[in-house]
Amino acid sequence: MNVLITGGAGFIGSHFIHHILGKYENYHVVNVDRLTYASNLSNVAKFEHHPHYTFIKSNIENKDLMNHIVKSYNIDIIVNFAAETHVDRSIHDSSIFVKTNVLGTQTLLNVALENNIRKFIQISTDEVYGALGDHGYFTETTPLSPKNPYSASKASADHLVLAYHSTYGIPVNITRCSNNYGPHQFPEKLIPKLILNTLKEKKLPIYGDGKNVRDWIHVSDHCVAIDLIIHQGKSGEIFNIGSHNERSNLEIAEFIIEKLGKSKDLITYVQDRLGHDHRYAIDAAKITEDLNWKPHITFEKGIEDTIQWYVKNKDWLKGN
Ligand SMILES: NC(=O)c1ccc[n+]([C@@H]2O[C@H](COP(=O)([O-])OP(=O)(O)OC[C@H]3O[C@@H](n4cnc5c(N)ncnc54)[C@H](O)[C@@H]3O)[C@@H](O)[C@H]2O)c1
């Protein structure tokens, strides 16, 4: 099987490459990444000379090059991780989000169509559903109601993926996962930022009152779910992925401070993000029942390992 992984020098895509090459001896991975500020090639440096791995620096919007890559490597499956991913940046300027997340996905869909791809997997997000109150969960049939330019661009891409499935019959799946954490995450995101600031005893900026809730999942559990969806997910289906690990931003900050034995005085409240979604929580019953998936990494163990990774990989940060 030949798998095109886009955005494989970023956080989740790089873990997925480790997962696939670690598990399947006869799969070839082609990693296409534009190498934006959020990427770090050292995430996949281990595979530089691997016989079943190829890295190509490219923008997914480059249709001719993407077509050439898919043909030359006889690609069977496309897994599209490539995206602009930081909500704050999208609030500041959404242009690149529309280009990469919407037009980039459309380009890849056209390439998939022209080359009779066996499966197109769109890595989407629970943020397309908008925000929840204090109760309830997002299911796959929750109406899309994105509330910021990042989630709107991801929701637009989801609509295109489903439309290409209905119109042209492209075999597709969409994954909508909750917030990931783990090694390799660029430190503009909450958990690595909190870990690194706590280690340096710098202030931990917490938006608003810190009560916004996210449902956290370890990136490795997410990768196992994507693997199952590629191989067993019925075409046209959407799968929510989450691990019922809801925590407020303040709880996360306090948890990390406690693990590192520092003072809670490091916490500092900053002006809330515009349109900040109150709560996300995933109902993952479908993937559990249909594909027998469940998360295996507890938050306590996952955070412990993640902290240790950032402590041991100071050189990785210099690369960012
Ligand atoms: N991080 C999360 O918590 C989370 C949760 C659910 C879904 N997702 C989705 O998972 C995917 C990966 O997220 P991540 O956190 O690993 O992101 P990331 O920002 O760490 O990595 C994105 C990667 O995409 C690459 N890229 C950006 N634009 C590109 C382009 N035009 N062409 C080629 N490559 C390009 C970047 O260089 C980077 O390596 C995204 O689609 C995101 O929406 C993320």
Identify the CATH homologous superfamily: NAD(P)-binding Rossmann-like Domain
Portion in helices: 40-55%
**Gyration radius, in Å:** 19 Å
Assign the CATH class: Alpha Beta
CATH topology group? Rossmann fold
Total helical segments: 11
Give the strand tally: 12
- Strand content bin: 15-25%
Outline the structure in words:
By secondary structure, the protein is of the alpha/beta class. It contains 11 helices and 12 strands. The chain has helices at residues 11-23, 63-72, 87-92, 95-114, 149-168, 190-199, 219-232, 249-259, 285-291, 299-312, 314-318; strands spanning 2-6, 28-33, 53-57, 77-80, 119-125, 172-177, 179-181, 204-207, 213-218, 237-241, 246-248, 267-270. The mean pLDDT is 96.
